[in-house]
Amino acid sequence: MADIIKQNTITIKCSNPTKTDDCITCMAVESNTKQYPISMIWVYSNSENLSKADFLPTEHLKTTLSDALNYFPILAGRITEDAKGNATIHLTNEGVIFTEATCPNHTLDYFIPRMPQDEEFDYEHINTSDLAVKVSNDWTGPCTSIQVTRLKCNSVILNISAFH
After folding, report:
1. pLDDT tens, 19-73?
2. In the chain, which residue ranges form alpha helices assigned H by DSSP?
3. Rounded to whole angstroms, how far apart are CA atoms 141 and 76?
4. Which of 37, 86, 126, 132 has the most CB atoms around it within 10 Å of its CB?
């Protein structure tokens, strides 16, 4: 098992929030996905062995995320559920959870085993141990969480967990 060392989790908010009490009532599809938040993983191989400051720099990721939330404030809001089970997203700008982590004892090959060129990649056996900060499936917290994990080989695994 990989040792994933998680740093302090912070909250990233819109860089230029609007003052609003707006909310969005979701369609039935979104209201029924409460128990099934999605988790996506992107893997970035640092084949040129660039430094942390030059390869997906964390401060730049935080800044651009904060700017992007200005256009997608739904991601920084919070969800409530009415008596009928409908989800409503309140555009509160309470923020996205952002965690930086390191895995000092494993390289990218541990998480994604190399395959011979004539074999199809085995997506079912990606080792995802502790690569995510999951969103709560009872809608009591953030709608979105992001974790950036830096590996021994200086590669990066980016995980985003969110509601549909």
Report:
1. 778 888 887 766 667 677 888 889 999 999 999 889 999 999 999 999 999 999 9
2. 28-31, 58-68, 108-111
3. 10
4. 132
Q: State whether residue 65 is helix, strand or coil.
A: helix
Lookup result for tokens 């900060």? 133
93 vs 91: CA distance, rounded Å: 6
User: For 162, how many CA atoms within 13 A lie in the half-sphere containing its CB?
Assistant: 16
**Which CATH class for the 5-162 domain?**
alpha beta
The SS3 of residue 6 is strand
Strands 96-103 and 5-6: antiparallel
End-to-end CA distance of the chain, in Å? Answer: 30
The DSSP code for 142 is B
Contact 38, 106 (CB under 8 A): no
Cβ proximity of 47 and 140 under 8 Å? no
Question: DSSP code of 130?
Answer: T
Q: C-alpha 128: how far from its chain's center?
A: 13
**Domain residues of the chain, as ranges?**
5-162
